[in-house]
Structures
1.
Amino acid sequence: MSMFFSHKIMFIGGKGGVGKSTTASAITQLLSEDNKKVLLVSTDPAHNIGDIFHVRPKDTALSINTYLHLLEINPQSESKRYIEEVKTNLKGLVKATMVEEVHRQIDLASASPGADEAALFDKITSIVLEEYGSYDHIIFDTAPTGHTIRLLTLPELMNVWISGLLEKRRKVQQNYSQLLNDGEPVDDPIFDKLQERKQKFVKVRDILLDHKKTGYAFVLNAERLPILETEKAISMLEKHDMNVSTVFVNKVIPDHADGVFMENRRKNELPYLEQIKDIFRKQEIIKTPLFEHDISTKEHLKKYADTLISTHSFLNS
Ligand SMILES: Nc1ncnc2c1ncn2[C@@H]1O[C@H](COP(=O)(O)OP(=O)(O)OP(=O)(O)O)[C@@H](O)[C@H]1O
Ligand SMILES: [Mg+2]
């Protein structure tokens, strides 16, 4: 079996339509059949893990059986919930006359680029921290590449941002205490809240950067653009010291596909497969065949999952 499957937390990324959800679902299926308790989380607004398992997941875990659990995060409602939470947290912390202005500022911020990602990241953080002990594996099926990368590099950014805020807050507090309290510290609930958030991010960052605990994998197809995009994405994650251990090459033309057309496709594919071997030297490369049909039933998923663990899967072994 792939070393990727041993991680407690797994993130599956890749370009649109390459087979992220299918691969994430197949890994979930394999591990759950091995009596591992698995939570598969979809963070993609265009969810399809429900279609694969023929159920309707929600934003709380839905049990398919003792071992297999599904959850879908809706970034938009998550964003709304997050904003409401921020407003509630500020209640009682700002002067009544300021409330309206503060809410206006928050609403403005919530419409800015990155707000949905921040909310989504907040939800991922909560799942990782709160569910860590309840499952053997938590697998995240993510949205297409660009989005995912921004999301995964957020803990670093968040940390810098919150540290900045904390520093500012500390100065304000110093001024206050000199002014009001003869230099004695005054209670500052905002400072405490920020501190709390910072601790949460530090905790999740430690898990996401721990190579033993968290693995990142990309799914791609043997084509020019997915290769380029994946190469870029991996180098970016590696810069943040994230452990991209595995690359899944999906929809590889199988040996038994015959006819002139398929023969030509195979010839076309070959240099890309060579290129993949060459570029992703540090990663384990697992290839899965193109099927004649979509992976849309339990039987298909089982067949697909079997190819993930077959000895022919490993392109670089
Ligand atoms: N090996 C395969 N052979 C045939 N069809 C496949 C294979 N892998 C995936 N598919 C089909 O390709 C389509 C896209 O797969 P999937 O939904 O897993 O991709 P995705 O990367 O999650 O897409 P999105 O970016 O939209 O989330 C689906 O219809 C799926 O059934
Ligand atoms: Mg998908």
2.
Amino acid sequence: MKPLEIPEAIRLQLVDAAHAGAPLEVCGLLAGREGRVDTFYPMTNADASEDHFTMVPEEQFAAIKDMRDKGTQMLAIWHSHPASPARMSDEDIRLAFTPDVIYVISSLVAPAAEALRGYAMIDGVPEEVAIHEI
Ligand SMILES: [Zn+2]
């Protein structure tokens, strides 16, 4: 799996969103072209939960329409882990239905080098995808 490239400005948006939403999980979509993210679409966590999330469908549809208008693709589904490492939880794995996206998790408790990680679901098993800062 090719690495996902995320510019520093967007990494900072993810950290800010994760902190702003804590202790609840927050979520969003990352879009761009050819594995390079150029837009973060923050989404409301309809569950308002500390350990899982559900995106609001209307917000998802609006983001996907905007991607179509701009000619970009949904590259990743992002959410925060306010109190756990940046690893796919059992629930994350169970609910990872969307094909051909990378699941990106920001942890607020992991050391900086492990705070942002990406995973591709391969036959139901998460495999880490490198995230490159650009
Ligand atoms: Zn999670």
3.
Amino acid sequence: MKLHTKAVHAGDRKSQGPGRPIPVTTPIVTASSFVYDTIETTDKVFAHEVPGYAYARYDSPTLNALDELCTALENGHGALTCSTGMAALEIALKTALLDRRKKVVAASALYGATINLLLKVFEPFGVETTFVDICDLDKVAAAIDEEKPGAVLMETISNPLLRVGAIDKVAALCQAAGAALIVDNTFATPLLCRPIELGANLVVHSLTKYLAGHGDVMGGLIVSDQAHFDSLRSLSRTYGPVLGPFEAYLTMRGIKTFPLRMERQCANARKIAAALGQNPKIERVYFTGDPSHPDASTIQRLFPADTVGAMVSFDIRGAGREEVFAFMNRLRLIVKGTSLGDVHSLMLYPAIASHRDLSPKQRERLGIRDSLVRLSAGIEDADDIIADLTQALSPSA
Ligand SMILES: Cc1ncc(COP(=O)(O)O)c(C=O)c1O
């Protein structure tokens, strides 16, 4: 089945027993535990000798349906959904490191909170991280060789400068060194790239973003290959970062239209990037569809033609914090929200949001200047988004 079909059908319409009607969409089941006619059946369910549910921290119908859908989208072996994208990253790292050396090699260009997760949560527990330019394969090979990490962590499209590493080549390096590769696929989505098909072991998403897509859900997802799934499930069942059934329902509903939304958002981003490239107020545009993008050959190799991303970042010429604030305050349509991937276009200022907790020096090292803003293209008419940007950039025009 192709992705658009899976998005609509996978996980839904489970049999409710012989002769019972089948709901066309998965119902929200709120029960925290499940009972059977006899305690012997409960015993067998706990022992996985018969299918069923015992306790909602382990399994529950709405979540299982969403897990099945997400497994299908990413072509993995199994999936687990949890309360946030950060919780998903934490459990993915723990799964990867469970029986490996407690050392991580991570892309230097990552979401700010992910950098903090490594430095402020994992490091105090003895897991050190070495950061490397994930787009420089010689440096990645050297870091893996030197550090002998248990896990390598990267984003398919980095936040916010939109660099794209060669997942398949990094995966080959990891495999040769016995390290697990974790890929945060939030920005790319399975429409652009399915990292497990390229050799990654664990794929992470903030469901909060494109997959749920409507700005009304917090959620995280880990999709696993076969080798890591039992460990992932066992960790999750033990410390229980599960998603609530209402969020699972909303996410499933959102995913049905995610490929359509993402196609439109990618098309809008392309038009927006082209318009910004012509605007004299703009110093530099970052977009994965730019033919002169530093990772253009990787993008052409790994992503479908023309559907290469829905994010556009840009530096406003000569702007500092004050000018960026003034520009953002002039926006009338684009929502100044600290997220991405929603149906509405969103503008974020990394220096005060996604990368706020990094020092100015750390941001500078990553190339995140005070003049940089990040736009998540929505599904509106591209002309309206461009008109809003144009009037906000040139208030007197
Ligand atoms: C690339 C990426 N990964 C993970 C996260 C964390 O997701 P959440 O906010 O759902 O915890 C974010 C949030 O912005 C993100 O942009």
